[in-house]
Amino acid sequence: AQSVTQLDSQVPVFEEAPVELRCNYSSSVSVYLFWYVQYPNQGLQLLLKYLSGSTLVKGINGFEAEFNKSQTSFHLRKPSVHISDTAEYFCAVSYLDDYKLSFGAGTTVTVRA
Amino acid sequence: DGGITQSPKYLFRKEGQNVTLSCEQNLNHDAMYWYRQDPGQGLRLIYYSQIVNDFQKGDIAEGYSVSREKKESFPLTVTSAQKNPTAFYLCASRRDRVNNEQFFGPGTRLTVL
């Protein structure tokens, strides 16, 4: 079974500072990788995804992530955060041709002025 | 606009009662999913359906039941057998196997009194 580890449960950050959210997964076979964002009491919204090709993936709202196969990681970054980036962020993984996603426990980002 | 709707947004239930959560999608997606979200635990898969009249148990199916009589609808029943049903429930759908992205509804918060 897939296992996804988000290494930080809480990340406080000042406005306009950079942020990195770490995600590691267990599988050594080919996978699809996703980052989702959840604002309070809402559903999940896709930030970005890696299916194949370039290892640097750009998403919405200025986020990007880098796929590192040798380290089985998919860390999410943003060079300058805004107050509106305060939310919970989930990393998710699936095998190719699998209908299921495995989610990490989530990282809560709190942006302060 | 295409999307996923869940109703109600908030639901209160007395112990010992069954309750059904609604999930409807007009995205023409074949696969649909139900997740349970608890603080600090990420999303856990309850049931999923790849096609009409077919569904499979996820990781935490005990105390839940589903049906898939129409492509657009995937209701979840939380039965009295579910020992700790208070949680946030999310419904999702998936476009196809090539693009493994899941789209999420806004969620239903269930509280057992």
Quick rundown:
The complex is a heterodimer of chains A (113) and B (113). Chain A has 113 residues and is mainly beta.
Characterize the structure shown.
The complex is a heterodimer of chains A (113) and B (113). Chain A is mainly β. In chain A, 0% of the residues lie in helices and 53% in strands. Chain A contains no helices and 12 strands. Chain A has strands at residues 4-6, 10-14, 19-21, 23-25, 31-38, 44-50, 56-58, 64-68, 73-78, 87-95, 102-103, 107-112. In chain A, strand 10 (87-95) and strand 11 (102-103) form a beta hairpin. The radius of gyration of chain A is 13 Å and the shape is globular. Chain B has 113 residues and is mainly β. In chain B, strands 2, 4, 5, 6, 9, 10 and 11 form a 7-stranded mixed beta sheet that branches. In chain B, strands 1-3-8-7 form a 4-stranded antiparallel beta sheet, with no helix packed on it. In chain B, strand 5 and strand 6 (54-57) form a beta hairpin.
Map the helices and strands.
The complex is a heterodimer of chains A (113) and B (113).
Chain A: E1 4-6, E2 10-14, E3 19-21, E4 23-25, E5 31-38, E6 44-50, E7 56-58, E8 64-68, E9 73-78, E10 87-95, E11 102-103, E12 107-112
Parallel strand pairs in A: 2-12
Antiparallel strand pairs in A: 1-4, 3-9, 5-6, 5-10, 7-8, 8-9, 10-11, 10-12
Chain B: E1 4-7, E2 10-13, E3 19-25, E4 31-37, E5 43-51, E6 54-57, E7 64-66, E8 76-78, E9 87-94, E10 102-104, E11 108-112
Parallel strand pairs in B: 2-11
Antiparallel strand pairs in B: 1-3, 3-8, 4-5, 4-9, 5-6, 7-8, 9-10, 9-11
